[in-house]
Amino acid sequence: MTRMDKYSPVNVDGAYFAGVPAGESDLHALLRPQILISNKIELKLSCVKNNTIFIMLQKVSLPMYKFAKSLCVLNKAHHVRLLSSAVNQEHNFFFRQLFDTVSSTYTYLLADKRTKEAVLIDPVLEHAERDATLINEVGFKLIYAMNTHMHADHVTGTGKLKSLLPGTRSIIGKASGAQADIHLVDGDLVTFGEYQLQAAATPGHTNGCLTYIFNQQSMAFTGDTLLIRGCGRTDFQEGSSERLYQSVHNRIFTLPDHYTLYPAHDYKGQTATTVAEEKKYNPRLTKTLQEFIHIMDNLNLPYPKMIDKALPANRVCGLY
Ligand SMILES: [Fe+2]
Q: Which of UniProt's keywords are assigned here (predicted)?
């Protein structure tokens, strides 16, 4: 520890934060920048001016950020100016995008590194062992294996993951009609560690499509409702072009522009997009509703080659 000991550092979230009084006698010492490192969290005392302590927070977690702000309210540190650009990149958050080359499906592993609780979005049956191995290697406990919708182009890995990683529970939208341990409706929350995904009903590609909105990380997982510069087809599984258009415009394009969107698939090598990009460049969803319906009615797509196998399997968690 540094000389900040004398100011009774407060333990927050496993790290120390010092609410330092800015008396005249302290000025000289505090003007020399110091770095306190505790549990990989760095606090840098930047400078003191006019009885105001400027503390640079680096690698801070959300609780640390909130605590720093509370110090301002309590007037213990007179003023805390948050200078760190890393505030939004929480060190407790783990994120990994995985890919299936056969169906071009993205699977997403999200976890709270502190509690070790993890969720997997849209796992693929053939990669259940890959995913289980990764989760074990990084030391997480999979609590939920969840789908954005009942897929027609691949068999879900949720059922197999439940047997590979006992304790895992499966999740899907109630309107999908598929079996799962937990059925979600619009507005439901999925909690892992200190994080929460919010289910937003975005029907259109299928009746039961959900978008998982992750406000704490400015992300959303759109499934097949919105793809990068595209969208899911609407010509089977009770698809409706009008509903998909309304879902995107009312539930996804209304998110903040900077939110990163992660789709269930990409066929051109892209990995993610943003709300702002799709509002500007999506060739289908920037059109009027009537134009969009016309486009979707004339795609002339082939019958999905996996659908006759995938749908019956996905109705029962991929166990068939
Ligand atoms: Fe789909």
A: Acetylation, Dioxygenase, Iron, Metal-binding, Mitochondrion, Oxidoreductase, Transit peptide
Q: 274 vs 79, 212, 244, 286, 287, CA distance in Å?
A: 35, 15, 18, 14, 18
Residue at 242 is within a domain: yes
Distance 76 CA to ligand 1 centre (A): 53
Residue 172: both structure tokens together = 């899907």
Question: What is the 236 CA–ligand 1 centroid distance (Å)?
Answer: 10
> Is 101 in contact with 124 (CB distance < 8 Å)?
no
Domain range for 7? 3-74
- Residue 111 CA to ligand 1 center (angstroms) comes to 24
How does pLDDT run across 8-34, given as a tens digit for each residue? 334 433 333 444 444 433 433 433 333
Residue 31 CA, ligand 1 centroid: distance in Å: 58
Rounded to the nearest whole angstrom, what is the distance from the C-alpha of residue 232 to the centroid of ligand 1?
Answer: 6
Q: Are residues 124 and 193 both part of a single domain?
A: yes
Tens digits of residue pLDDT in 224-270: 999 999 999 999 888 999 999 999 999 999 999 999 999 999 999 89
Q: 219: left (phi > 0), else alpha (psi -120 to 50), else beta?
A: beta
Tell whether 88 is covered by a domain: no
| Cα-to-centroid distance, 148 and ligand 1 (Å) | 9
- Final residue in a domain of this structure, among 45, 74, 103: 74
Question: Which residues neighbour ligand 1 (ion) by CB within 5 Å?
Answer: 151, 224
Q: Residue 277: give its domain's CATH number.
A: 3.60.15.10
Dmax (CA) of the chain = 78
pLDDT tens figures, 105-162:
999 999 999 999 999 999 999 999 999 999 999 999 999 999 999 999 999 999 999 9
Residues 305 and 194 in one domain: yes
In the reported structure, the alpha carbon of residue 224 is separated from the centroid of ligand 1 by a whole-number distance in angstroms of 5
